[in-house]
Design brief:
The protein is of the alpha+beta class. It is 33% helix and 33% strand. It is built from 13 helices and 16 strands. The strands form three sheets. Strands 12-11-16-15-14-13 form a six-stranded antiparallel β-sheet. The chain has a five-stranded antiparallel β-sheet with strand order 2-1-5-4-3. A hairpin with a 7-residue loop joins strand 14 (341-345) and strand 15 (353-363). The radius of gyration is 39 Å and the shape is elongated.
Length: 395
């Protein structure tokens, strides 16, 4: 037999999931130029080439029974390939058991467009499923009216029937989805509850036209633990209506906890530094003031901002060049006290003498010096301080 003219009706066959052809209709036999004896009971390869068989095997093992719209090639009696678009559904046949039922039409027209879109969706879904980044998409039973006042938009986001449109496995892992549960079928409010933090998150989305990166929110995992997350979000808006939004989410809880610990440690150190009775200045190796404490501001009669604009030799008459003092400080033996130097403040209206000690340090990977000034009782002149330094007097 030879292939007949293009059929006006669909072609149907039933393929056993075990790999053999359980049934085929007359339209398909006529189109392929084959007889029932040549096809029924034969392996898939009697009609379907390798690429088509691989596609059919994917449908057999797919999570969904279908229907799936796919493009396939069949092989006719002459060996020529016949391109078709098929609607495949996994069914239970009384005689053959689990089967794929394929209804096919010659390729072309709207159905081929559906098959192409279906395959593109499958590819994109596979990429998202394989990603370690938690991806999600949310839509509403009733679109959110973005022309409403801001507080009303926020209310609608939480109350207009939000539901998950698509979330990948990484999303389910992030939120500790209960065993055997499909994250996409779970209520949105269970992980994204209406709370002051999440209302503020939605407010930022509204003001950014639902186009943000690294926007924080506070979500609830299924084990009852709140997590701090960052979201990259985009919205699908037509007119003044928000139909869906989607994006990726990252758990930043450990970073938030670490930042809180560091902030507490910094606050503690700043409080201790501010409470020290001796004046403390941190300078770089060129003598620029980098940091001071409150006692230094009081002693020098300047604010921290004003001190930061000054050089050390404008503030203090040093007994030696700063580079030499830095070398001496670096040579200090561990366990030995720091050497004390006499220093005078360059303040003609208020001559003050002080004992100065130095320690080397590193700030932002750059070498620096930490100077401590302890005021000596009684007035002093600048010349007296320098004279004491030249004679090596330790005070």
């Amino acid at each position: 037999m030879t292939p007949s003219a293009e059929p006006e009706i669909e072609m149907v066959d039933m393929l056993s999931c075990d790999g053999w052809i359980a049934a085929v209709d007359a339209a398909e036999l006529g189109w392929l130029g084959l007889t029932a004896d040549q096809v029924v009971g034969a392996p898939w390869s009697a009609v379907y080439p390798l690429t088509a068989r691989e596609r059919l095997e994917d449908l057999v093992s797919a999570a969904s029974a279908g229907p799936h719209v796919v493009t396939l090639d069949l092989r006719g009696v002459t060996g020529a390939l016949v391109p078709v678009t098929a609607v495949a559904t996994r069914v239970e046949d009384p005689a053959a058991g689990p089967c794929l039922r394929l209804v096919k039409w010659p390729r072309g027209g709207a159905l081929e467009d559906v098959a192409r879109l279906s395959e593109e969706k499958e590819v994109l879904s596979s990429i998202l499923e394989a990603s370690d980044d938690a991806g999600w998409s949310m839509e509403w039973a009733e679109p959110v009216d973005l022309s409403a006042p801001e507080h009303e938009i926020i209310r609608q986001v939480f109350e207009n029937g939000p539901r998950w449109r698509f979330c990948n496995d990484a999303m389910a892992r992030l939120y500790h989805t209960p065993e055997g549960k499909d994250f996409n079928a779970l209520p949105v409010h269970e992980t994204f509850p209406r709370s002051p933090e999440n209302e503020d998150f939605v407010r930022r989305l509204v003001r950014a036209s639902f186009d943000v990166n690294a926007s924080p929110s506070r979500d609830l995992r299924y084990d009852g633990v709140y997590i701090e997350v960052e979201n990259d979000v985009r919205g699908h808006i037509r007119g003044n209506l928000l139909y869906r939004m989607w994006g990726t989410v990252r758990d930043v809880s450990k970073h938030a906890r670490r930042a809180a610990v560091l902030r507490e440690e910094i606050d503690t150190l700043e409080a201790i530094l501010a409470a020290l009775p001796d004046a403390v200045l941190v300078v770089d190796m060129e003598g620029h003031v980098l940091r001071t404490n409150f006692a230094a501001e009081e002693l020098l009669g300047m604010t921290a901002e004003a001190l930061a604009a000054r050089a050390l030799d404008e503030l203090i008459a040093l007994p030696e060049p700063l580079a030499q003092l830095a070398e001496r400080a670096a040579d200090r033996l561990p366990g030995h006290p720091s050497r004390s130097y006499p220093a005078s403040l360059r303040n003609p209206d208020r001559p003050i003498r002080a004992d100065m000690t130095l320690r080397p340090a590193t700030l932002r990977a750059a070498p620096c010096l930490v100077l401590s000034l302890r005021v000596r009782m009684g007035p002093a002149t600048l010349d007296e301080g320098l004279s004491r330094a030249r004679t090596g007097h330790r005070g």
